[in-house]
Amino acid sequence: MTKKDKRKKLIALKDRMESDNSLPLRSGATNLVFGQGNIDSPVMFIGEGPGRWEDMKALPFVGNAGALLNQLLQSVELPREEVFITNVVHHRPPSNRDPLPEELSSYGRYLDKMIKIINPSIIVTLGRFSMAKFISGVTITNVHGKPRKIVWKDKEIVVVPMYHPAAGLRNGEIKRRLFDDFKVIPEIMKDVGEYKVEQIGEEVKEDDSIEQMSLV
């Protein structure tokens, strides 16, 4: 798919989300926070949900956690504008609470389509909710920074579970681990096809009901 085609599909998907009155967090939010970055990037970062600043600016990771994410990206010489960043829910949960299962499901239909359009080779999950979308039955304390290969919609993708940057702001040890864990990303990017990672047997099933985008 060409970049022009991707952009067209993503814009259509974003428009569809903005007109979807069934999205459960819509009524309490200021803006839809669709995503931001290079839609041709091989690397996609998926966080949890917008906070106050993200809700105001309609952009992901622009608050304090976003500032730390920027530092993490800079530490491995990966420009933010060269990756794509989004979340598992795209409206701000009240008081920044954790997303509920029904909310993850509602927004997940769109996120699935977003991933399918962007077609990344590497997905970096930031926090346990985005990790659980791809890898089940594990804890982030045991798997953070360890690449896993999964089959997602008939395509092999390397998933790298990471702590959420917000956790690093609250805990200095987690912040240190984040900087260490990020070092694996350039290594995977060198040749993702030959990178030796653990194989995950369970395939994530596709929900074909919708389509989607994220560009700013």
Approximately what portion of the residues adopt beta-strand conformation? 5-15%
How many helices? The count is 9
Order of helices and strands: HEEHHEHEHHEEHHHE
Biggest pleated sheet = 7 strands, mixed
Can you give me a brief rundown of this structure?
By secondary structure, the chain is α/β, with parallel strands linked by helices. It has helices spanning 3-18, 52-57, 64-75, 101-118, 128-134, 140-143, 165-170, 172-182, 184-190, and strands at 36-37, 43-47, 84-87, 122-126, 148-152, 155-162, 198-199. It has a seven-stranded mixed β-sheet, with helices on both faces.
Structure description:
40% of the residues lie in helices and 14% in strands. It is α/β, with parallel strands linked by helices and 216 residues long. It has one domain (3-199): Uracil-DNA glycosylase-like domain (Uracil-DNA Glycosylase, subunit E). It has a 7-stranded mixed beta sheet with strand order 1-3-2-4-6-5-7, with helices on both faces. The radius of gyration is 16 Å and the shape is globular. Residues 195-216 have low confidence and may be disordered.
